[in-house]
Amino acid sequence: MDNWFKSKWFVRIASLAFAVFLYIFVSVTVNSNESESRLSGNSDQAQLLDDVPVEIRIDEENYVVSGVPEFVMVNLQGSPGNVRPLALQRNFDVFVDLRGLGEGEHTVELQHTISNDVSAFIEPKTIDVTIEERASEEFDVVADFINSDKLAPGYELVDYELEPSTVTITSSRSVIEQIGAIKVYVNLEGLEGSINNREVPVNAYDTQGNELNVRIDPESVQVSANIDNPSKSVPVTVDTSGELPEGYSLNSVSANVEEVEVFATSNVLEGITEIATEEIDLSEITESGTIETQLALPEGVNAP
Description:
Largest sheet: 5 strands, mixed
CATH architecture of the largest domain: Beta Complex
Number of strands: 21
Low-confidence stretches: 32-41
CATH class of the largest domain: Mainly Beta
Number of helices: 5
Oligomer: single chain
Strand content: 35-45%
Radius of gyration: 43 Å
Strand order of the largest sheet: 6-4-1-3-7
Distance between the termini: 129 Å
Number of domains: 4
């Protein structure tokens, strides 16, 4: 044995074996720590959901509430096997339970139906709400016709009808007292004919023109509008300019039609008593005959 230790090759081989053993030991220890670290990471996961709707549980027959946010943030924490499906399917509810509370201001806590296997944190955790007595009132609906100046040329709105012409608004008494108008909007752009039973949504506005969040029954009405292209018959006159060449005289000039039907809006037609032809230059005429010319139609007037 002493001779082995004295041997140069034995010492070299022993040193090499020890170095290999030390390398393997360190590698196994590091890999083991990394595996433990990965396993530890897989056991806990967080998922933030920032658009979770809030359900309101309240005695809807008698009360309305304001101050409840439409959406809240929910932070889920737990094992991936529980958090991931929950975040994807969103098969849970976030709600505020106001049943049993009366009129007035209240600070309430948001609740959820998430399993205890997952930790859930809602932001905000509590909210301030105002509960008021429910009230209903009937209002007339007014139609607001937009882009009437973009109707087809010569067309105009004659009259209209809404069915139904009234709706019932339900909200708190304080909100109902703010109502300034109940409107529907009807777009007339490009129309060349009447509107028959077009369904349009109803909107409620306060006296400042701000839209109000109220319950409207029904939510839409049907509008029928008479879009007309008025017309009337007027005499045709021949418009001339210049003088006949020397030695010629004009016995008579007339159009081949006495009247023409013109189409335009009512206010334009009111100002029209006759329609002239485009000017005929007499200086270019040296014999009797027929000359083709166009009607000089004012702007906004059409003739077939």
